[in-house]
Structures are given as structure tokens and as C-alpha cells.
Amino acid sequence: KATTPRNDDPEHASRPFDKSRNGFVLGEGAAMFVLEDYEQAQERGAHIYAEIAGFATRSNAYHMTGLRPDGREMAEAIRVAMAEARTNPDDVDYVNAHGSGTKQNDRHETAAVKGALGDDAYRVPMSSIKSMIGHSLGAIGSIEIAASALAIENDLIPPTANLEVADPECDLDYVPLQAREQKTRTVVSIG
Fold it and tell me: Per the domain annotation, does 28 fall within a domain?
């Protein structure tokens, strides 16, 4: 199921990783960045929120609309981005999840993070801002990068709103209901 039927309760409709989730909530928004060389930003006195140290993308050709249960492609993208950034799983402080609120995606992503981070997946907090703003489709990647930069800037992990009872197949630390103060230097943003 893609979209939730909970439109009459918009504040509680988006429930990533929750046992009672039943689809994503369409949202809207945008974010914009100035990307520039570090030295140039310093030279002009720019406020630097974060550094993009690594990037990777993969396609899931498993099925027209379905995802591989093992999260293989997503795990590989995370590993490649971390290698490009010269980052190890034990360096990661926070995972900004895709966390769409569909059963298939949330389970797939949980498996992918476990595959990429190994045992560190159980230590690293992971949350979904879509629980608060919905899924803006094409714009969500930039919005999640902005949220990741703000997590670093403020040493504050955003919560997964509406996560009351976790799906047993989603067994990581999803920062339920309340933001968490935590020193945050390295973020994996899944988008």
C-alpha cells in the first residue's frame, strides 16, 4: 500500500517504522543549498553548516515497484558513500532515514542499514523527518540533507513522530516521539 487512508488525522497519519503504519503521507516543501569549495566559503566568511563528504546512488531493478527484502542495493549505496567519505560505521552518529511509512520500505531500509553498518546499526540513532512533514517526492532529498545539516549544527537528532509501537521487523533505535540531544558530526542521509 502506498498512501495512508488516515487523511482525517493529518498530525498522526505518517507513522514510519510503527506497527500500525499503513502508507506514506504526501507532503510538499523545498530546500536549497550553496555548495562551494571549503576554502572559498571560509574566505568569504560563509556560515558552513556541513560538508558533503561522500555520495552514492543505486537503482533497485528487483521489481517494477517492489524492493528486495534484504536491502542489498541501499546497503551498497551507503557503504560506497561511506568509503568515498573515508568513514567507518563506528564514525556514524545519526542516520536520516528515508522512512516513508510503508511496510515494505521501512523493513527494506532497516535491513539495508544493518547490512551497511553491521552491529553499529543498533547503536546509531535513525529517524524519519517524513513523520512530521510527509513525503515531498522529488524535493525530499534536499529537505533531508537540510535536516541532516541542522542535526549537525544543533547537535540534535530529530524524532520519528507517531512511533508508538515499533514493527518487530524494524528493531533499531528510531528516536521515537522526542528529539534527542547528541553530539553529531557524521550523518548518513538516505533521502
Answer: yes
